[in-house]
Amino acid sequence: MAKVLFINPVIRQESSPRHVPYGLAMMVAVALRDGHQVQVFDANAWRAGDGVLAQVLGADDWDVVAAGGITTSYNSLKKVFSLAKIHAPQALTVAGGGFLTSMPRDIMDLLTGIDVGVVGEAFLTWPELLAAVDGGTRDFSGIKGLIYREKDGEVVFSPPRELMHDLDSLPYPAWEYFPLEEVYFPNSSVVLSEEAMRAKRRLDINTSYGCSLVCRFCFHLGLSGDMKYVEGVDGRQDVEFDVPGSRTRNIRYHSVDYIVDMVKYIVDRFQVDFVSFLDENLMTMDVFSKRTWLNELCDRWIAEGLQPEERRDPKSPIKGYGHGKGVYWGGTSHASLCRPDTLKKMARAGCTYLDYGWESFSKQILKTVGKGATPETNKRSYYWTMDAGIRPIPNQMIGFPTEDFDSLRDTMRAWEDLGIVARPFIVTPYPGSEWFHLYRQDILDQYDGDMDLFLSELGDATEVTAVISENFNDVELYGLRELMVRGDYRRMERFEREWRVLKGDPAEGIRRGRARMGLDIAKGGKSEAAE
Asked: Pick from 242, 400, 449, 472: CA 20 to 30 A from residue 411's CA?
């Protein structure tokens, strides 16, 4: 059987490693299921440097060196594949995950140390690829869902891979191959709720693949059936996602039984006390299941004894943190899809926080995002979630294509109404998103045509990278964010007066942004081509 080395790249170097890489742990489990020999080096957990990584790569005669992750791990992955060619030259190097799928042709051109890339979902492709390696062949033309280098160096795609639908047939992630006791459990605490802050043994799980929304800043990377193979600008085959006018949404999710049985397993094996759901939007399953999935999850969670002891009395308030048995949990929600009765049931079962992508409280901005939320639904979700006894975690952004001074003030006034302040992220056009596709040339112009440099600077959107705002530059966005957080309307108004003298009417920027997105400016709505 194939001898496989998995490498988890470094991500968020400035932060402690808090999350076992779920996707990689799933691929480890699939390889183990099929009988392959597996080792894992978690570079993100150990933060041991390139010297130790080189030693690991040279420690055995690996048949395959596999690594992947999201685009923000690009710098680390670049080192992994470069060093693999030096210290494990006999191994087939395989890349996967969002960083590869979002722009497979570009990544293969930029990172020449990659032999094969798994494009899109890997559940079906990965075992076939390992079987081919085990069989002694490097002819991958018959395996769907790959991009690879032929003997002459040409980069080619194999046929597209269909999505997997029997998700419950998947093994549980191989958490035990990662340093839980040494690294991840000591870093269990996350500042999302009182209970999450006091977690001692937290693990993350994923229940669904895909999201029903079409947010222009986000990416689905084929998980919702939205990936299409096309002819690129240079005439070579490539992929694109969420094409306006031809979007698809194929939402898949595990059964409640699979998820609850998984949680019982990690409680029994690892004594887990907190579970974070990694899903893009828990409410997607609730809507697609006709409002049954979350209710059934809560019922089964309670029936199996996973409900925290201090929440078992229906007359007891949902507040404080107890010390009894049970598993607390948290996840994501959507302002226009949540409901008070469901939220209260979730809280009683042990839910302590829900992460909301409110983005903005400007009606003008939210109409361009494509999410279907409004300032009113954003505010409503806050009150409903707080009333249920769950902490709503606000995610906000500035620097939208049509951002102007009024949209910033709309958000500031909403903070005053709600009694909160949220330090906004900066809108970042991540590869795979619609905004990356629309603004690609503008992004490259900001980096003198150097895509590698742009990818190297991508972080978690706390810092400015490529700006796609039609009105504001990077320096202005930094300053405006500071004024927002301080609630300094006076200085913002003074700056606006000066800005208008130099740049004119910000309404022109709004019109340019809407035109770029194909929105119907005259009617104030959206064109069929855009949605």
From this structure: 242
